[in-house]
Amino acid sequence: MAKTKYFAWLFGLAILLMIGWYFLWSAITPDGQPPLTRLNSDQQFIREFNDAATKAKLVLLLSPT
User: Fold this and answer.
1) Taking the domains of the chain in order of start, what are their residue ranges?
2) What global pTM score does this model have?
């Protein structure tokens, strides 16, 4: 019983920390770097990608499947 209660508290704390990180700290970038952006359309992606033609780029594509 005590182990289950301890695990439940630990799991709840982990969930709260992940939510806090997502909303408070995940969009922080180093000085001199533009803030993170969520792209909502293909045109916005093309514009953002082409704005800095001479700079190195990193594109991360995630799929839920």
Assistant:
1) 2-51
2) 0.41
